[in-house]
Write the structure tokens for this entry.
Amino acid sequence: MARVALDLMGGDGAPEVVADAVVALDLDALDIDLVLVGPPALASQLLFARGINVGTNPRLTILSATSGVLMNGDPLSHVRTNPNASVLVAAGAVGAGAVDAWVSVGHSGASVAAAVLSCGRVPGMSRPALAVVLPATSGPVVLVDVGAAPEATANVLTQFAMAGWCYATALGIPDPAVGLLNIGSEAGKGDALRLAADTLMQERLPALGVRYTGSVEGHDVATGARAQVIVTDGFTGNVLLKGMEGAVGWAAQQMALAYGNAIPARAVVAGTATGDFAAGMLLGVNGITVIGHGAGRPNEIAACVRMAARAAKSDLIGLTQRTFSTLLERAR
Amino acid sequence: MARVALDLMGGDGAPEVVADAVVALDLDALDIDLVLVGPPALASQLLFARGINVGTNPRLTILSATSGVLMNGDPLSHVRTNPNASVLVAAGAVGAGAVDAWVSVGHSGASVAAAVLSCGRVPGMSRPALAVVLPATSGPVVLVDVGAAPEATANVLTQFAMAGWCYATALGIPDPAVGLLNIGSEAGKGDALRLAADTLMQERLPALGVRYTGSVEGHDVATGARAQVIVTDGFTGNVLLKGMEGAVGWAAQQMALAYGNAIPARAVVAGTATGDFAAGMLLGVNGITVIGHGAGRPNEIAACVRMAARAAKSDLIGLTQRTFSTLLERAR
């Protein structure tokens, strides 16, 4: 069983779309206890309108919170000055051990701030990273960071590699190989950051039992043949992820024309949005935090909840803490 | 008419694949005079085996050069110490005015070095940038830089924006808007480089009559709705381009399964490789330089030759020189 808190007030279509996501989840089959975080009267009313009676559903509870987070302004100061904001109450429920994981599709900067404030960082991890799982040709690929840290150092990228490896391992990918996203696979390629990160990863990763493939290129993200964990700074990762999503959308349009039928093409695109792909896992905080698309539809938000439960059941946090603790002990 | 030099010795499949590309070109219909650069006996023999007699073909001549460039080692020093290397002879033919454009699918670092040495940089352009034209949903999009300069400054990105705008204009895109590739479209998003570049572009581009859209995101590259010239550093652009190519390949595989027929999907992928997409245009040098994929097939190399001729006929170099000259005069 996994207990997952879901921020009712986050996201472009909140709270209605989040309530729709609750309906889309088969909590019994998934063995999830869901905690909906928002104004209780509103939450009850939204669910009642969708045929769900919170009072009689043992899988569903409501945790009181006042409001969402503004999309503009400094998210950290907003979170700090609004202790009853749903994003902070949801993250706080994980920090306090009341639930095992939390999910928000609200402002991602606010979610990162709430997770760090409420759960704390994993010792040895300078800053959190956002990871997604892509359905590559040879199997799932973890891409990290896709936007939590737009600027990184070689040390930060190496931490992201370790955290990404823990995530891939927790997801059941056997002996995942780590690759550094670069503009060529030969040694000596790339900018100063990549050159320094390559040296550091070669030095640190094998000592932790992590296979390091070296540099991989943009096309390796879609194939997954050379590495199952692909590491980059949040600027490059965010641009790449959105660029690949755009390219798949473009291809679907072209395919619909080429085949004279748009329906199968649309199904392929929809599959990328509702699978594991939809969930951004925040790595490096002491609590499972899933950040989804602000414009996410109900089935995408439901996919985020399923991923949160899956990470909780596979003890992602424990594995991450142990891996970083080993590194810190060796560094002493 | 356009006179184009083609490096016979560059590329993974050279010289055979380059000779196949010559066969694939209808030089009369394209109004191209082609100069094949390589060892004359080898060039004649390869063409003769493909049914082409150089002696009797008025559209085709051979320019003598000795050898290709090694794939490893420092390309600049290699080019400097091998004046008869085909890449340098081909670039030199443009620098000397013997031809209007040159094409190589060999080592891209060597091609950039040969272009700079033989043709010189456009005054006001600190370093050259590699641009591709992507077949976006709303029309062609120029993406610059895709790998010539892995590290950039705000000033360099602004130069790339101007050079990319000249390329889009030379290609006939009406009043192209320039966008800065970023991780969010709101002001204040991105890393330090993007913040500084946004300020500089706002200040400089409108004064040159160039529309500046502000920040655009990864998915905007495939749609082309917000900007027709999208500017980034060579690291991000290279990763993005290869990632999008990978994503289209992945989508084609999924579509082939979804539709139960791989043929139309393969045709869509092949179209991206043989269209304008295949040709990397080196911007900021005083001579039209097209750099293609090292693994390019004959029809991709032929597409590079067509793009070189198109840029020559539309006076890309003159437009670029005049645009930068205006900026330099204003800066005085």
About this structure: The two ends of chain A are 38 Å apart (CA to CA). The first strand of chain A starts at residue 2 and ends at 7. DSSP finds 13 helices and eleven strands in chain A. The mean pLDDT of chain A is 93.
